[in-house]
Amino acid sequence: MDDSVATVSSLKEEVRAFCEERDWDRYHNPKDLAIGMVTEASELLDIFRFKSLEECQGILSDPGRREHVEEEVADVLYFVLRFAQMNGIDLSCALESKIRKNAEKYPAGLSRGKNLKYTELE
């Protein structure tokens, strides 16, 4: 299954089934799942740490190294999906809500082409 056919719901269900087959629910409290997100995101960051843009592009164009990146991205997604699944978070609704809030903080006319925090926009 690829992104063009997968749904957030189906991915959450896949993660739920995987974890329940292993009796892992007892280990997946909000704190430990949040720790998992940060740990896996740090492992992804470590791949690119101290690398130039060209080196980063080289990593992503090398099949073996790209596979490592994809595995770390998948680990981050796994923990996000599991956190949402275990805690009744509708990720689509949460994302839509956050994008609406960010649209107010970062109006396109003020923020286009800038990497400033919303408090610095004029």
Output the keywords:
6 helices, globular, 70% helix, Helix Hairpins, 122 residues, mainly alpha, 2 domains
Describe the structure.
- The chain folds into 2 domains: 8-89, MazG-like (Helix Hairpins); 90-122.
- Helix 1 crosses helix 4 and helix 2 runs antiparallel to helix 4.
- It has 6 helices and no strands.
- It is 70% helix and 0% strand.
- The protein starts with 7 loop residues before the first helix and ends in an 11-residue tail after the last helix.
- It is globular and about 50 Å long.
- With 122 residues, it is mostly helical.
- It has helices at 8-21, 30-48, 53-61, 63-87, 91-105, 108-111.
Concise account of the structure shown:
This protein is mainly α and 122 residues long.
